[in-house]
Prior knowledge:
Layout (H helix, E strand, L loop, with lengths): L4 H10 L3 E2 L2 H5 L14 E3 L4 H14 L3 E4 L16 E4 L6 E5 L4 E4 L5 H10 L2 E2 L12 H7 L6 H4 L6 E7 L5 E5 L11 H5 L8 E8 L1 E2 L3 E9 L2 H13 L6 E6 H11 L9 E9 L1 H17 L2 E6 L3 H18 L5 E5 L8 H15 L3 E6 L4 E8 L4 H20 L18 H20 L13
Parallel strand pairs: 2-4, 3-4
Antiparallel strand pairs: 1-2, 5-6, 6-10, 7-11, 8-9, 8-10, 12-14, 12-15, 13-14, 13-17, 16-18, 17-18
Helix pairs in contact: 1-3, 9-11, 12-13
The structure holds flavin-adenine dinucleotide (FAD).
Amino acid sequence: MTINEHALSELRRGCINLTTDKAELLLYSFDATKIKHLPECVCFPESTAEVIEIAKACSKHKIPITPRGAGTGFTGAAVPIQGGVVIAFARMNRILKLDAEAMYVEVEPGIVNFELGKELARHGLFYPPDPASLKSSTIGGNVMTGAGGPGAVKYGVTRDYVMGLTVVLADGSVIETGIKTAKGAVGYDLTSLMVGSEGTLGIVTKIRLKVLPLPPSVVTALAVFDARTAAVDAVTRILRERLLPRTLEYIDRTAIRCVEEYLKIGLPVDAGGMLLIETDGDETPARDEMQKIHGICRELDARGFTIAQNADEAQSFWKIRRSISAAINRISPTKLNEDITVPRTRIAELMDRLDALSQRAGLPIVNFGHAGDGNIHVNVMTDAANAEEYARALKAVEEVFDITLELDGTLSGEHGVGLAKMPYIRKELGEAEVAISKRLKLAFDPDNILNPGKIFP
Ligand SMILES: Cc1cc2nc3c(=O)[nH]c(=O)nc-3n(C[C@H](O)[C@H](O)[C@H](O)COP(=O)(O)OP(=O)(O)OC[C@H]3O[C@@H](n4cnc5c(N)ncnc54)[C@H](O)[C@@H]3O)c2cc1C
């Protein structure tokens, strides 16, 4: 127990809404992994001023703080593994300023990505990063994990849109990072340092995001291939021919079968792979671009290429992609879900090596995801209740990381490190980079109270 009565009364003075009720604490003890740990107190601040008071009390009493958005993370980053205080941002979910001329928006961290998108669309604007969790995950969580999504192939990831942040540091002091201009070159880029730092360097209370004009038209298509190699080749060919679709999502054979069993919509279960493709912009160029993509797929013997005729049909294609996560749970009770990324030119090699690994390990490995930027969700399917099989699965995951690094890839394209990837981080970063990163952490948080036990072993 790190919170005594004295500390608790200071927290109560600083933040009106908090709970220590065990049933409520349970709700803040986990994320989308199965990792769980109870906090001792959850605070629901409504302003930066309240967050400052929480940080001051925690700093004084050396209480761990875990900031939390919606808890949809895939790495355990929002799990309060050392107890202490969770700061939940559900009550800080406002749009503070929308400057349509200067093309930026300022928001509180608890706003849900989709809600921001709806409001921006009313002004003809668009915030591109679109994690598949966009209907529940928060902008604060997206920024602190460096989230990406299907649109990243054309528009980039969260990191590319963060212009500035208000950050409460561990001792309760506040920094305002970044710019309001189109560019800037003063001082260290603390904004970039904060993005993807998973709440280990500071608590974000305001976020300034770049926005773009809403594309007037989106064209959606589904391509079906007999051979997986052709589906993967299509990705490389499309990009090599300087076409820039907004989405290029890959769905492998096992995922197709699982989704068909789950949705029963007549998917081609004997296909080797599918691509979900979107182009956008003015209507004619978007349609022309899709026709060129169709031509490439035809040359690669695509068995089918269907362009959605209306928004409902487009949504039905997206339903296939969005159902994969739930559908593959039917194979085995436990899914070890990694989001490794390789150079786009090496996806085919990656797939071959994952096939071989699956055979060697005697475990199904399901692959799908953002092929357009080389970010493949590799799912090693197992049963955590079966100790021998689970050990084999963990070893397979380590091999997935080794293969990824051998192909010049990275262990995470968008989910981050949290607890799940922490044991492997040295493989990618090496000792010297881990050591300097730990010194940076100490400069921001000398008592190690901000989301302790995450990212670095
Ligand atoms: C079905 C499903 C699909 C998904 N698809 C994608 C996808 O396509 N792309 C993708 O990138 N991710 C995806 N994810 C993972 C997850 O949604 C993202 O990582 C998301 O960015 C997490 O947001 P959150 O609000 O849930 O944050 P949380 O999980 O609550 O927190 C994530 C991290 O951010 C920190 N944090 C949160 N708010 C703050 C703050 N204000 N200040 C400081 N630190 C803070 C937390 O401490 C934690 O370290 C998916 C998850 C699910 C369940």
